[in-house]
Amino acid sequence: MDIEKYIREVPDFPKTGVNFKDITPLLANAEATSFCLQQLLLLTERQPINKVVGIESRGFLFATLLAKELDAGFVPIRKAGKLPHDTLKQPYALEYGMDALEIHEDAIQKGDKVLLHDDILATGGTARAACQLIEKLGGEIVQCNFLIELEFLKGINKLKSYEVRSLLSY
């Protein structure tokens, strides 16, 4: 199945000059979603994984499905102020300022084998901040796994010390 035909490009969203990769048509098709999940699972090579961390918000969609299939727990990483319990915060740079991600302090245990998942690898800042949070809690990142990599933004350069896999590259 060609899942690329289920990725809609939206020009000038969220701002002029950006061609947004919209995965909602993929999610709206049960067969395409199932196929995509199977392909993401193949990327993991069924390595031992006991936690799947998803990055807010679109990363949650496949991360929860991956966790179920891998018989692993799911852990959300969210924007600052969105998690209800004690959190660990990691600031990171954006092209236009700063932002921060948070994770519950008790979400990852020392030695947990972690799969980090997000829908898109762009500049790599968000993924790198997520990796830093996981490692501060003692987790071992087995792989960073993405549906789409925007190669021209060179986000993979911020993740050089990790195994990075993507289904689609633009």
Structure notes:
- Helices cover 26% and strands 36% of the residues.
- With 170 residues, it is of the alpha/beta class.
- The strands form 2 sheets. A 7-stranded mixed β-sheet has the order 5-6-4-3-7-8-9, sandwiched between helices.
- Strand 5 (87-94) and strand 6 form a beta hairpin.
- The radius of gyration is 15 Å and the shape is globular.
- The two termini are 18 Å apart.
Key features of this structure:
globular; 36% strand; 170 residues; 9 strands; alpha/beta; two-stranded antiparallel sheet
Distance N to C terminus: 18 Å
Strand content: 35-45%
Q: How are helices and strands ordered from N to C?
A: EEHHEHEEEEHEE
Tell me about the largest β-sheet: 7 strands, mixed
**Rg from alpha-carbon coordinates:** 15 Å
| Overall form | globular
Note poorly predicted spans.
none
How many helices?
4
Spatial sequence of strands, sheet with the most strands: 5-6-4-3-7-8-9
Helix content: 25-40%
Number of strands: 9
Structural class: alpha/beta
- Overall mean pLDDT score? 96
Topology of this protein?
Layout: E1 8-11, E2 19-22, H1 24-28, H2 30-44, E3 51-55, H3 58-69, E4 73-79, E5 87-94, E6 97-104, E7 113-121, H4 125-136, E8 140-149, E9 164-169
Parallel strand pairs: 3-4, 3-7, 7-8, 8-9
Antiparallel strand pairs: 1-2, 4-6, 5-6
